[in-house]
Amino acid sequence: MSSIHLKTALDYIRRSPFQALAAIFVLSLTFFVATLVFVLAYSSSQLISYFETRPQVIAFLKDDATEDEVAALQHRLEGDTRIKEVKYVSKEEALSIYKKATSDNPLLGELVSPSIFPASLEFSVNDLNFAQSIIDEVKTEKNVDSVGFTAALGGESSLKDVVGRLRTITMYVRVGGLIFTGILALASFVVLLITISMRIATRREEVEILNLIGATQGFIRSPIIIEAFIYAVLGVVLGWIIAFTAILYLAPSAVLYFGEIPVLPRDTLSLFALFGVILGVELVSGFVLALSGSLFAISRVRRSR
Amino acid sequence: MIIQFKKATKRFGGLAALDNVSFEVKKGEFVFITGPSGAGKTTILKMILGELVPDSGEVIVDGTDVRTIDSKELPYFRQKIGTVFQDFKVLHERTVGENVEVALAVIGLSQNDWEERVKHVLKLVGLSKQINLFPSQLSGGELQRVSLARALVVNPKILLADEPTGNLDWDTSDAIMKLFEKINEEGKTVVMATHNVEILKKYKKRVIHIEGGKISKA
């Protein structure tokens, strides 16, 4: 029985291809933007997560601090629930980091010895709101010479400002993206509504005949709902494919620009998994859009007895 | 009795389309409903089909009071009744075969069983060769046969016909009437609204004459 409904729905589409094209075009545009917004939201959260999990605070140790004292301080910091990933960096490791950072100018590395670099304890904070108080506390430790921050973007003086700024940008991206997607989704809904309403209007005689021969409302509505579902599936898949292709095209440049920050999954499987999830969510959204649009259009046609 | 009208009255605004109408139709009977235009013939058929309900009185079809049928049960009630109309009411975008198949899809019959039933009913109405033609390629008589085939294919208990020969010439009308008679002889109850005097003269069946919403002869 479903094949007759599918055939009817396909007949409707064939009979008015321009209405169908309009509906599919708007839905494609909506889901193209939605896919980009999804990816932007993912990338921005990755960006924040990256900065949040970097060693944010470095406590430079005094040269006269003994191994036991350093170990005790490290143990104390590890026991603090506000702090995570405490790492001891020796003088030798500090020199190695310096040499790596100045590898384009080896002369700079040759001029220094490990003794001029202080050993340090690097750690991150779970919540940046605690950062300042933790830093103030660590500064008071007798073996700590000074405390510094690793990140500095756009000239901000503190890490909190950096991540705060990132969060604000991310929030704007997400809210702006959601609003834009919402507007497009509303436009899709209206176009779907108009298309289906026009379909119902042109089907009036057919509906009358079907009513007379005992067709249930489900029977009469099925082709209309299937038609809306066809538009939704085509719109979602087309929008998703275009966005996916565009992102695959731009991915190498993005990876190069962001370096080690994993704004997009590095391995193919994870990348496809991410886009698979996006496609799944969009298909569900498309179905909801199609179902609500077609049922709303149908509900406008009341029968009386 | 398969159809019973008991003092049924139906008003549209202040005008009585049916006024205290009572009559009965036996199972397997062929009944003509006659009368001038606006007399109430179509109102009677619409009540039998459950499209209208009486304001007062009762209309009982195959044991069911049409007033008690809710909107969800109505389609299943109508599936027991075949309908043929003056304006054919065929689906113009579907072939003859598909027009008949739609009725089978409506009653939920398995698609595997369609072909045999469609071929049988089209043979009965003489449209076997036209199975793949579209309504625009058919004559008026053929369109009425499509309508009749669609009504018959679901094996209804009652066949309602509203002026089925109204748009046809005499020869075609006569051929259609012979089909109705044949169907009636096979046991189907037929209720036909018509004001075609020649048909009434030729086919000697029980006549219910209605005028001004009242039965003048039953």
From TrEMBL, chain A:
Keywords: Cell cycle, Cell division, Cell membrane, Membrane, Transmembrane, Transmembrane helix. GO terms for biological process: cell division. Gene3D superfamilies: 3.30.70.3040. Residues 56-147 form the FtsX extracellular domain. Residues 179-291 form the ABC3 transporter permease C-terminal domain. It comes from the Bacteria. The chain crosses the membrane at residues 20-42, 171-194, 228-251, 271-298. It is a multi-pass membrane protein. InterPro entries: ABC3_permease_C, FtsX, FtsX_ECD. GO terms for cellular component: plasma membrane. Its main location: membrane. It is found in: Cell membrane. PANTHER family: CELL DIVISION PROTEIN FTSX. Belongs to the ABC-4 integral membrane protein family. FtsX subfamily. This is Cell division protein FtsX. It comes from Candidatus Woesebacteria bacterium GW2011_GWB1_45_5.
TrEMBL record, chain B:
GO terms for molecular function: ATP binding; ATP hydrolysis activity; transmembrane transporter activity. Homodimer. Forms a membrane-associated complex with FtsX. This is Cell division ATP-binding protein FtsE. GO terms for biological process: cell division. It is found in: Cell membrane. PANTHER family: CELL DIVISION ATP-BINDING PROTEIN FTSE, IMPORT ATP-BINDING PROTEIN. Residues 3-218 form the ABC transporter domain. Part of the ABC transporter FtsEX involved in cellular division. InterPro entries: AAA+_ATPase (IPR003593), ABC_transporter-like_ATP-bd (IPR003439), ABC_transporter-like_CS (IPR017871), ABC_transpr_LolD-like (IPR015854), Cell_div_FtsE (IPR005286), MacB-like_ATP-bd (IPR017911), P-loop_NTPase (IPR027417). The gene is ftsE. Belongs to the ABC transporter superfamily. Keywords: ATP-binding, Cell cycle, Cell division, Cell membrane, Membrane, Nucleotide-binding, Transport. Signal peptide: none annotated. It is a peripheral membrane protein. GO terms for cellular component: plasma membrane. The keyword Ribonucleoprotein does not apply. Its main location: membrane. It comes from Candidatus Woesebacteria bacterium GW2011_GWB1_45_5. It comes from the Bacteria.
